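Form P-L/3: holo structure prediction, ligand flavin-adenine dinucleotide.
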Amino acid sequence: MAQGIGQALLETRVHDEAGQFLSGSMMDYTMPRADDMLNIPVDNAVTMCTHNPLRVKGCGEVGAIRAPPAVICAVVDALHDYGARHIDMPATSQKIWRRISASRQHLAAE
Amino acid sequence: MYDFAYHRPASVAEAVKLLAGDPEAKLISGGMSLIPVLKQRLARPSALIDLGAIPDLVGISVTATTVTVKGRTTHAAVAASAEVRQAIPALAELASHIGDAQVRNRGTIGGSIAHHDPTADYPAAVLALGATVHTSRRKLAADDFFTGLFATALEPDEIVIAVEFPIPEKAAYVKFPNPASRYAMVGVFVAKGPRGVRVAVTGAGANGVFRHAAMEEALAKSWSPEALEGISTPTEDLNNDIHASREYRAHLVGVMAKRAVAKAG
Ligand SMILES: Cc1cc2nc3c(=O)[nH]c(=O)nc-3n(C[C@H](O)[C@H](O)[C@H](O)COP(=O)(O)OP(=O)(O)OC[C@H]3O[C@@H](n4cnc5c(N)ncnc54)[C@H](O)[C@@H]3O)c2cc1C
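OUTPUT (holo model):
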């Protein structure tokens, strides 16, 4: 889940126009850390597989795959009044500020 | 890393002599900024002069009107000092948020201000409190100390001995950390005290730490977050990088300044 939240809010590869990798060290590439996370209660909702006699299926990276849509949907919902219907990952504070200020300027111009 | 000679002088006088005798030599204090530069082969000093064996470069002393921190005192020692917490809580708190525990246990105030990284925290405290930097040859006012990006008024053979902070009536520092490095993307230190009302901004300026004249004027008239409403920060001389544009930094300067004034009370 931390990995998924990192993808949604923090992690990004940045290249300049010449292709030079700009977020090449941990001083520039933002990995989620322990203090970026909260305690998340984990529960199971069991659904039997109907396609094999064991009624089980393998799966992996449940948290990493589900976390980005959940977080981004929450961000877009929070920015709904500012006209946001979509936001590219990662939703950094700068991106959210841009979204809000663009919408305010738009409103001020009306 | 390239090869270098290593000296461990036992006094400031000996360190100055070594430094004056070899223009390619460099002082090393906590090594938290210098070692990474050496590891990446971005510098090639002929010798490192380690300040670690000079006993009178470490310590904190507090009088009724000043807090003096010796040059080789670590961030952790300043953060943990009951006397600093009592006299200038904002200074102890600033030190407690520098880097991580390992960096705070090695890094020193002298190294931090001599390096003058544009995103370092201490320069904001030194400038906003109007501190005096005591060196091996003179006393420098904070306003004359920081001269540009990674640049200070220090001569090549000059050593920071101590930083003397006048105790303010009110002060606070608020930092918006760079999410990856935790250095200041923008940090604002506000102070009201014997040197007047002063606002210093770090992390944002392309030439390093700077004072915000418009905010100082407004706060001198009325010390309140509302007094800063509508004051903007010109973007020409601000940093622009993959983490924050000039415009976003200018916005953050305003927000951090208001929070700092509210926190100072
Ligand atoms: C992972 C990491 C995170 C960090 N995060 C932060 C942060 O959030 N905020 C922040 O402010 N800093 C941060 N730092 C930097 C840290 O605070 C360093 O301690 C500081 O910048 C340099 O102090 P130093 O004692 O390690 O100096 P050194 O690395 O030993 O020296 C730095 C420079 O100063 C010179 N110098 C050292 N001492 C003196 C002296 N007494 N007189 C004259 N010149 C001297 C040296 O010759 C060298 O050029 C971080 C560092 C790391 C590695």
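COMMENT: Residues 2 and 37 of chain A are 7 Å apart (CA to CA).
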